Amino acid sequence: MASEHDAVRMGNTPHWEPEDVIGKMTLSQLLFSHDYRHIAIKGILTSIAMLGLGGLMAILFRTELAVPDIQFFDARPYMSLMTLHGMFMVFGFIIPLVVSVMYYMMPRVLGTDRLIWAAGAQWSWWMLIVAAVFLVISRPDFTWTFYPPMALRVGGDLMFLAYIAVFLVALSEFI
């Protein structure tokens, strides 16, 4: 008679279900759960949304360059779109995507079923959302690198929100 180990080895076990990978999930569980899979999926989906927003901004400011004689945007909205594109791609897509994949992989690599600091991971996602809102509200127009010549000559009354947003992204990824 075959043992359970032989059944696994011979492939007679039932196929995996999606719940094995992401767990049973509703929208409220996705937003507020401390399960590492939910936190990781939420972060990956948010990163993909930020990629879409940054790509849309790239399409908009590249439209300005498509026809030389037609002006779609003035200088300030153009620089604002270019800055937001860079910030969304770096601070909203690349960094959160890497951290979200790490949130999913580390418990599996370590052989555990939870994150050690799941509440902190949950807070980090919410801080990322607040940072994205602050970035859009601040309308920075000095490129995503914050180099002093441009960063000192331009900027509006809400420019401090861009600095707070970058600080929140950095803080959220270190939690």
Features:
175 residues; mainly alpha; 8 helices; 0% strand; elongated
Provide a brief overview of the structure.
The chain is mainly alpha-helical. The protein has 8 helices and no strands.
Low-pLDDT sequence parts? none
Strand content: under 5%
Output the number of helix runs. Answer: 8
Name the helicity range.
over 70%
Number of strands: 0
Rg from alpha-carbon coordinates = 21 Å
The number of domains is: 1
Tell the overall outline: elongated
Termini separation comes to: 51 Å
What class do helices, strands and sheet pairing give? mainly alpha
The pLDDT mean sits at: 83
Largest β-sheet summary: none
Order of helices and strands: HHHHHHHH
Describe this structure in words.
The structure is a single chain. It is built from eight helices and no strands. It is an all-alpha fold and 175 residues long. The protein has one domain. The N and C termini lie far apart (51 Å). The mean pLDDT is 83.
Q: Topology, pairings included?
A:
Layout: H1 4-10, H2 18-22, H3 27-32, H4 36-66, H5 75-110, H6 118-138, H7 148-153, H8 159-174
Helix pairs in contact: 4-5, 4-6, 5-6, 5-8, 6-8
